[in-house]
Amino acid sequence: MPNALWIWIGALGLCVLLSAAGIAVALVDIRTGKRQLLHSGRRILSYLPFAAGFYGWLGYCVYGIGWLLTSDRSAAGFWKDASAPEIVVAASACALPVLFGVYLALTFHYPKRRERPYAAMLLLSIVSGVGNASMIFVINAAIAEGGEVRVRLFPFFVLGMLLFVCGQKLLRSRLIRMTNGMVYDKRMEILGTVLNASYEKMEAMERGKIETCLNNDTETVSAFANKLVSIGTWTVTIIAGFVYLALINGAGFLLSLGVVVIASGSFYAIARSANKLWEQARDIQNVFFKFIHDLIHGFKELYLHRDKARDFREDMGDSCASYRDKRMKAEAKIANVIVIGDLLFAAVIGAVVFAFPALFPGMGDGELRSFVFVFLYMAGPLTAILSSLPELFQARISWNRIKRFSEELSGLRGRETEPFAAEPVDEVSLRLDEAVYAYPRNEETAFAVGPIDCEFRSGELVFIVGGNGSGKSTLAKLITGLYEPKGGSVTLNGERLHAGDIGSYVSTIFSDAYLFDRLYGIDFAAKEKEAQRYLLLLGLQDKVSIRDGRFSTTRLSSGQRKRLALLVSYLDDKPICLFDEWAADQDPEYRDFFYTVLLSDLRSRGKCVIVITHDDRYFGLADKLIKLEMGKIA
Ligand SMILES: Nc1ncnc2c1ncn2[C@@H]1O[C@H](COP(=O)(O)OP(=O)(O)OP(=O)(O)O)[C@@H](O)[C@H]1O
């Protein structure tokens, strides 16, 4: 028996076994609930006629191989006299697509979370690549042979088309799911990293970096994953093409291989040299998002002052122009190589047609034609692979940026990934012993608060006062655990908690508090009545309503927004309340109500109330007054 037959039996047998194992594992996953049905049974059944047609055609073609392998071109005769191994190969060739099809159907309609079906996608890539290449070989053979053979080759041409089209369809449907799942997973991962990062890191982070990373980088990486699959199919087509060329003419094959190696090598070198420009362009993206941030938040100022808007436009225009120029430069480099690559391919074809007859006198016209034909067919996928290289480099840049961004955020000790469960406490004592916080020294005016010794207890109203820039808000961030002390300690009921976990005991309203339109982290159903009562108490009942934990609006005056933030703080119901210049936006009447009624009500409910204020009229109401000067208690 010829060796090739054994190789076929081995390869097909292995694939049959792998597919059967894949089906078994998928069935176990379905039974254990790891895989859930996604589509309706009717939709799955609607694919059956297509599958039946495909497998019927495939069986017909396997049978038809007999025509090609026998000298008298009789399929029936061939299979009558076929040896047992030949029958095994034919049976496996029919069984494999059926098993693989069942595996694909199971895994597609019963998906698993975070599934990355690389092996199945690789196989589909090979199938569609072989289908693509086989079409041109069949066409070539049909032209060369003519007559009855041409008619008998037709089913194989259709099979090539079916393999290519079905392979691509199945591949792309998996790819769409995988790449979108990748973007989702990456975004969730980055979001998780951001939410667990330390506040100090986030505060120091260059503005625009998070947006670029979450938006552009995740998209670029997933878009490339998409491309990777096309590259797989093209590569298979090219490899099959080269094998075919080698069979037609060894010298022609070597020449074309040499050209492809030279073209790919120079392309790679040029793409590498453009890499620096892409890196720079990527940096400019961060700045671009910073501009967008400024545009949105500073729109009022820009709208009112045309001169400001003009200068802003110029500034943003410069940044966009710089991005455009970098990308243009990089892409121009690539365009040059694409043109040179095309020229090289044309040169090879020219050399084959004009030089080969002189160099190899034995080479017939038929061989020449086949050679040119196949090479022309390969040129498309080849150019497509080469033009994908820039995307590869850009995806690599984005991938590295995502990695570096995550490392940067997790570099400084952030919180534990598991949410901290604050133990319910009736009484609190928050102590600062020799506590110090200093801003990073990289700024000329690096400021420090401390060393500070003080204690805040339940049922106590403490005012923190002092001039602008004396360090009140910095101290508040130290107390609430937004900043980790650089020296000394902050303890809660004698226990030294991780700075990021102190927040679980504190309800804060900073002067630049952000109001979400949903009551995150609050069981609204259990507190609905309370919420309505607070709306009334805060004089917001005609302005805002709350339904299913969502505010009807947050488009309010700044004083009203602060009142709504106070409502959230009431519902948070934490043992410590910290308000940073809360009353600054309130009218005199409500300000008075805040100091004389609301604060003393919180104190009488046993809360530890810390208030940062400039309202010296009310200083007398405090149990304790902490006055700061240049970051120290005066
Ligand atoms: N993010 C920051 N990075 C570096 N330095 C900062 C930062 N925030 C504040 N500072 C420095 O800390 C000093 C104190 O600021 P802080 O906000 O604590 O003052 P404050 O007493 O709350 O002032 P105000 O009454 O104006 O709100 C500032 O003068 C500034 O130099």
Automatic annotation (TrEMBL):
<feature type="domain" description="ABC transporter">
    <location>
        <begin position="430"/>
        <end position="634"/>
    </location>
</feature>
<dbReference type="InterPro" id="IPR027417">
    <property type="entry name" value="P-loop_NTPase"/>
</dbReference>
<keyword id="KW-0812">Transmembrane</keyword>
<protein>
    <submittedName>
        <fullName>Cyclic peptide export ABC transporter</fullName>
    </submittedName>
</protein>
<keyword id="KW-0472">Membrane</keyword>
<dbReference type="InterPro" id="IPR003593">
    <property type="entry name" value="AAA+_ATPase"/>
</dbReference>
<keyword id="KW-1133">Transmembrane helix</keyword>
<feature type="transmembrane region" description="Helical">
    <location>
        <begin position="6"/>
        <end position="27"/>
    </location>
</feature>
<feature type="transmembrane region" description="Helical">
    <location>
        <begin position="118"/>
        <end position="143"/>
    </location>
</feature>
<feature type="domain" description="ABC transmembrane type-1">
    <location>
        <begin position="119"/>
        <end position="394"/>
    </location>
</feature>
<keyword id="KW-0547">Nucleotide-binding</keyword>
<dbReference type="InterPro" id="IPR005898">
    <property type="entry name" value="Cyc_pep_transpt_SyrD/YojI"/>
</dbReference>
<feature type="transmembrane region" description="Helical">
    <location>
        <begin position="47"/>
        <end position="67"/>
    </location>
</feature>
<feature type="transmembrane region" description="Helical">
    <location>
        <begin position="334"/>
        <end position="359"/>
    </location>
</feature>
<dbReference type="InterPro" id="IPR003439">
    <property type="entry name" value="ABC_transporter-like_ATP-bd"/>
</dbReference>
<dbReference type="Pfam" id="PF00005">
    <property type="entry name" value="ABC_tran"/>
</dbReference>
<feature type="transmembrane region" description="Helical">
    <location>
        <begin position="87"/>
        <end position="106"/>
    </location>
</feature>
<feature type="transmembrane region" description="Helical">
    <location>
        <begin position="149"/>
        <end position="167"/>
    </location>
</feature>
<dbReference type="InterPro" id="IPR036640">
    <property type="entry name" value="ABC1_TM_sf"/>
</dbReference>
<dbReference type="InterPro" id="IPR011527">
    <property type="entry name" value="ABC1_TM_dom"/>
</dbReference>
<dbReference type="InterPro" id="IPR017871">
    <property type="entry name" value="ABC_transporter-like_CS"/>
</dbReference>
<dbReference type="InterPro" id="IPR039421">
    <property type="entry name" value="Type_1_exporter"/>
</dbReference>
<feature type="transmembrane region" description="Helical">
    <location>
        <begin position="228"/>
        <end position="247"/>
    </location>
</feature>
<feature type="transmembrane region" description="Helical">
    <location>
        <begin position="371"/>
        <end position="393"/>
    </location>
</feature>
<keyword id="KW-0067">ATP-binding</keyword>
<feature type="transmembrane region" description="Helical">
    <location>
        <begin position="253"/>
        <end position="271"/>
    </location>
</feature>
